[in-house]
């Protein structure tokens, strides 16, 4: 069955406006023309898509299904047009990356630098999100590639193991815990804490493990920036628990000391993921293969060798 893009566009407009007149005005068409297109679309599909009511329309279950898929079609067309316009401009590739800060502050810049050394005509957009935000961006098609931790549920995403990190405790010099070589969460739960924002994976895992100990974390301050957390610890406003690669950025701070948290759950994998590797663009496939050499997606089909397709697409120098 073939669908006319104009009719699909009009259907989306009617569904979003919930009114034929407003949709016709939005599309600069007569109401009768819009109504005719919708009727023809319903005849083509063989079922009603909307109920005509005195004050507007209401989608049927079939209409809701068509709206979802029509939006996907137009999102893909927009992405295709954007990527093709990049080829015209000489960019030859566009990758949208959503990432957690743990990857952005430490590992990702080097990975991108190495990738661009081989594929310099690739345009890369990077946005920082929580792990949940990264996965949602992949599922909704707002991101091509995502970096997040194994603590984030990722159903529907194809993932590759990428890096590892571990939680450590940040204390100020002179704190009673500062002379310890290692720590456990039980050593810290009664301390005044400086925590990350509530939706972060680190926040969720710490609260979960504290509950197992029958404790509640005494989190008086929350900030999104790990650098800011370090400064707050230096001012003796509380201690903080951060991924060790975050602490590596500030471990030379004269006023603070970082101590490993030696608990099995404190170690985590960092993943790189895509929604569907098989449907990804050549530039995205090249990026995945570049940052995860010799690795296979967990639960995904193994990707083919990309050299020929990359040369054909103009991505390979």
Automatic annotation (TrEMBL):
Q: Which domain of life is it from?
A: Bacteria
* Matches recorded under Gene3D superfamilies: 3.40.190.290, Winged helix-like DNA-binding domain superfamily/Winged helix DNA-binding domain
Q: Which PROSITE patterns match?
A: HTH_LYSR (PS50931)
Q: Which GO terms describe its molecular function?
A: DNA binding; DNA-binding transcription factor activity
What Gene Ontology cellular-component terms does the record carry? cytosol
InterPro entries per UniProt: HTH-type_LysR_regulators, LysR_HTH_N, LysR_subst-bd, WH-like_DNA-bd_sf, WH_DNA-bd_sf
Domain HTH lysR-type: from-to ranges: 1-60
**Which Pfam families does the record match to this protein?**
HTH_1 (PF00126), LysR_substrate (PF03466)
List the keywords (alphabetical): DNA-binding, Transcription, Transcription regulation
Q: Which PANTHER family match?
A: HTH-TYPE TRANSCRIPTIONAL REGULATOR YBHD, LYSR FAMILY TRANSCRIPTIONAL REGULATOR
Annotated family? Belongs to the LysR transcriptional regulatory family.
The protein, known as = LysR family transcriptional regulator
State the organism of origin. Winslowiella iniecta
